[in-house]
Amino acid sequence: MTTTQISAATDSLRARLGERVLTPDDERFAPTAALVIDGPQAPPALVVRPRDADDVALAVTVARDAGLPIAVRNGGHSFGRFGWVEDGLVLDLRLLADVDLDAAAWVGRAGGGTTAGAYTAAAGELGLATGFGDTGGVGVAGLTLGGGLGYLSRRDGLTLDNLLAADVVLADGRQVHASPDDEPDLFWALRGGGGNFGVVTRLHLRLVPQGPVYGGVLIVPLTARALADVVAVAHQAPEELTVMVNALVAPPLPFLPETIHGKQVLMLEIAWSGDVVDGDAAVAPLRALGPAYVDTLGPQPYPALFEGGPSGPPMRASGRTGFLQESAVDEVWAQRVLDGLAGSPAAVSVVGVRPLGGAIARVPADATAFAHRAHDLVVATTAMAPEPAASAVEAWSDTLASTLGLGGPAYANFLGTVGEEESRRAYPGATWDRLAAVKAVYDPDNVFRGNHNVPPAG
Ligand SMILES: Cc1cc2nc3c(=O)[nH]c(=O)nc-3n(C[C@H](O)[C@H](O)[C@H](O)COP(=O)(O)OP(=O)(O)OC[C@H]3O[C@@H](n4cnc5c(N)ncnc54)[C@H](O)[C@@H]3O)c2cc1C
Question: PANTHER family attached here (predicted)?
């Protein structure tokens, strides 16, 4: 890519989009391009901020014709840093963030740049919800296209199970509507296949009634017995009770009491989404784990669970992930987690365990491009370091992942390691073959390759 080609593409986009085309000499460029997870790459050539699907189609067409690589950015949270591309065009969708709620039809429509927090707050005003993850800043599109595992998943399915339709700009600039009746192969592939197939400018999502939840955070001492026990409780819990288990060394952050800074703790993110009056009884097995350092559990509006999230400057993150059966998580396995955390060279290290099951497991494995329905648990290790002490942290991540048995199939949204081998972990066997066939139809030149990429078949 020559400087002349980049300036020709920039000029042509500026003629239509004006100051919504940012180049590195613009003071808005660096803060706009910044992601939640930091990285070592050189900057993009330009950031383009579309306001509608026509703007997206223009940007895709200009970039493709100029041979400029494209990164698509929604909430900027991907562990693979897919919202960034060296010397290429970042399509920043955050101005496409309208939320339109049709309560009578139980459908929420979200622009391709909406965040989970903004959508959840708007739906909450009407006593409605679509289940996302656990963090308000994560993009609805980025989350949904890869899966969407959060507080309501065991009751209502993954977010992608609640995707009713999507409006998509394809690699050739065409705009299509994908649903079970329109472009059904594309619709199948979008539900799990990530950003491989086009730019989703609008998602049509199923809404459900959602009143207050009984939830919050419970922090208790971390022991091998407590970790094994809580995973068993989370796995066997009723579908309305979600327990996201995090084992970590408590960092010196203001929201954690000073007395636990530096201690190994279990931080449980909990939501009981059944009748709130039953919440106290539902979380009793968790409170019975032992005296809590922190207990914020109680009735609260569902959108309150999405407030907060990462703040401060972006950090380098090193992550590994895989699925396990619940029977593999015993005290011996849990002790490996404790030993791993004790030896971490990173500023913050977390081993997270989330149960699947419930409504997620009731969807046939081949109904969507998320094939991992039979697993009990997703496990993810994350090490965050302000400085790029990359090699020590990466080596620690590799060792811990192997000790914990995380080498096999993987959840795309938690997969921070990138490459064909890793993509095949996210899309095993027949899923890979079908995705590659759909890719050959909708993006034969692999224009959308800044993702857990599935190259076109043939
Ligand atoms: C703090 C944190 C908490 C998280 N919590 C959860 C959780 O609870 N549950 C869970 O399942 N995951 C969770 N994740 C993972 C998250 O779902 C993925 O990282 C997801 O890809 C982030 O989406 P994004 O839009 O924020 O990221 P971005 O970096 O903006 O986008 C990532 C990629 O998604 C694709 N994409 C995004 N928008 C579009 C679009 N409109 N059209 C086409 N492709 C698009 C593109 O390939 C893009 O490059 C979390 C991540 C972090 C950092």
Answer: BINDING OXIDOREDUCTASE, PUTATIVE (AFU_ORTHOLOGUE AFUA_1G17690)-RELATED (PTHR42973), FAD-BINDING PCMH-TYPE DOMAIN-CONTAINING PROTEIN (PTHR42973:SF39)
